[in-house]
Amino acid sequence: MTALTMLARSERDASRRQVPWRRMAWVNWRQHRLTVAGLVAVLGAVSLYLLFIGRQARTFSGVAGHSLTLTAALFQVIPALIGAFVGAPVLAKELETGTFRYTWTQGFGRARWTVATLAPLAVTVTVLAGAVGFLFSWCYAPLIGGHYGSNPLDGNTFDLHGVTFAAWTLTAFSIGVLAGILIRRVVPAMVATMFAWSGLAVVTGVFLRPHYEAPLVTSTPNVPSTDWVMSAWWTRGGKPVSSSTIDQVLQRAGATVNSGSVTQSPGSALGNMSPTQYLLHHGFTQFLSYQPASRFWPFQWIEGGWLFALSLLLMGTAVWLVHRRAA
Length: 327
Known about the structure:
Elements: H1 3-14, H2 21-57, H3 62-75, H4 78-97, H5 100-103, H6 110-140, H7 162-183, H8 186-208, E1 216-218, E2 228-236, E3 239-241, H9 243-252, E4 255-258, E5 261-264, H10 275-281, E6 284-291, H11 296-325
Antiparallel strand pairs: 1-6, 2-3, 2-6, 4-5
Helix pairs in contact: 2-3, 2-6, 4-6, 4-7, 4-8, 6-7, 6-11, 7-8, 7-11
């Protein structure tokens, strides 16, 4: 009699004596309590740091603004690390060590065991990340629309706020879970999780997020600094003008153009006018394509919504694969 046949027979016998959900919850707590404790400790330390920086930011000091810039850069990797160190080992460890042969025959069923394992961890990860994300929003609020005029839609910070930070963390966890069941090795699954999450984040920031809603177009050169300017172009007489033509016009006026930056030379025709004012005065019109800062929360919910749906799809696929792999 093969091991696969014995496993199938054991599961049929187990189906007649299903273990209640509350007992499985206790087993999962015993199995993953160290992981949860470590996650709480790490995110708790992050929260204390944000409280400290947030208090500094409310004094409106430049040091606090610089600290928040560094904080945003460091926080970008937190979801990926949670996906790699919390999500990837959940199923990969069972498969790599072979303990699934024992675990999946304990009177609970493969699919029920997987759901009972993933659901509490997913909820815990999402709630903790959401709390940290909303704390980051509170911490970052003084720099939005104030002296620094930070753009709330900026790609360096947009996915660190409450809704999207929780959604990206849940997605990273789900990617790790699926990578674990597909690769069946903990360390390779962790690496694959990091790469997959990074690729999704780049694609979202570059191709998806700018088009959640159609950008607005204006010929007013002075849009608020809190708006997300996506592109700019010049026209003259209703026809587009290339950047090289603009550079030539400014150079003929006596300005020095170097890699897009313009320096007024002494005695140039620009006088007291800025390069933009000079071009407008000579019949050029500048158009800007931008996303207004007022779209911040709609964009948060749009991105959070499709990431949450993607996470459910990934974890549902993992449950299905667990069921099929041992069938």
